[in-house]
Amino acid sequence: MFAYAFANAFSKPLSQKLGAPQTLFLRGFMIIIILGIASIPTYHYLSHWQVALEALALGIVGYLPVLTFTHGIKESPLGIVAPIAGASPLITVILSFLFLGVLLKPGQWAAIVLIIATNVFVSVDIRNWRQSNFLRSSSGIPFALAAAIGWGLFYFLLVPVTRVINPWLAALLVEIGVTIAAGLHIKFSSQKVSLKSSLEPRVIANGVFICLGTIGFTVGVKYFNVGIVESLSNSTALIASILGVYLFHERLRIKDRVAAAVMIASVAALTLF
Asked: Alpha helix locations (H) across the chain?
């Protein structure tokens, strides 16, 4: 959760400067180098070549939710798109419950719903919602729904892959797939990209935090409850709000403080119940 939140903080200025495809492509080099070295002891898991190919393909397909989300925030304010896309963990949790036999206690279900609701609540901008037209694609809502469904399916499908091959290797293959997809997007859209930009401090920092977040997720879902790990790892809106205070000198709103208290109570409930 913390790693993805820091990565998002660096992604915002990078996306504004380079665009989403180039940001994902350039940071991919740093991610592949780090995970490639860290995963050396696990390369023998490549003997499960079919699952390894599934992880690679999952990374390529996983580029689509990022793309739809980016297009959505171009069409509509972030306060409309982010809350919908932020509900993706609920899709993963429900699918894991139905098809992977992941069991949760009633108190844990309640805590997960509260965590997701808090994440959505922090992102909501009521004024933008009142001005939006739900039936038009220009509202950004169809893209946000596509991103939520795409991310929910992506993280659900990543669980069985991670449990067959080592989490570090799974993370490496997924990130290679994302980088390939971003590169193909750049090529076919005739965009120009400078590989020197991959050495920019913000690009490097973004890649490092993505590595930490992806490893945290893949290790978590291999050894612990999928519902808990997925709900926490993708609930970044609150952390992003707090980071905004220290990194961008933004003001912490009253609802952010209330959400922080609810989030802490919900995380505590996950462990107590």
From this structure: 2-18, 20-38, 49-61, 63-75, 78-85, 88-99, 106-123, 126-131, 141-164, 167-188, 201-223, 226-233, 237-247, 254-272
- Cα→Cα distances 117→55, 110, 212, Å: 30, 10, 25
Q: Quote the CA–CA distance of 14 and 24 in Å, as a whole number.
A: 10
First to last CA, the chain: 21
Q: Domain count of the chain?
A: 1
**What phi and psi, each to the nearest 5 degrees, are found at residue 189?**
-95, 5
CA-CA distance, 69 to 80, in Å (whole number)?
Answer: 11
- CA distances, 127 to each of 77, 79, 120, 124, 247 (Å): 10, 9, 15, 9, 25
Cβ-proximal residues to 241 (8 Å cutoff; 6+ apart), any chain: 122, 250, 252, 253, 256, 259
Whole-Å CA distances, 129 to 76, 82, 136, 252: 10, 12, 13, 21
232-241 pLDDT, tens digit per residue, is 676 666 666 6
Would you say 224 and 103 are in contact if contact means Cβ atoms under 8 Å apart? no
> Is 172 a residue whose pLDDT tops 60?
yes
- pLDDT: is 61 or 1 the higher one? 61
Predicted TM-score of the model (pTM): 0.74
**Spatial separation of the C-alpha atoms in residues 246 and 226, rounded to whole Å:** 31
Q: How far is CA 76 from CA 50, 130, 131, 136, 204, in A?
A: 40, 13, 10, 11, 29
Query: What pLDDT band is residue 66 in, cutting at 50, 70 and 90?
Result: confident
Segments forming the whole domain that contains residue 267: 2-272
- Nearest Cα to 170, choosing from 64, 7, 57? 57
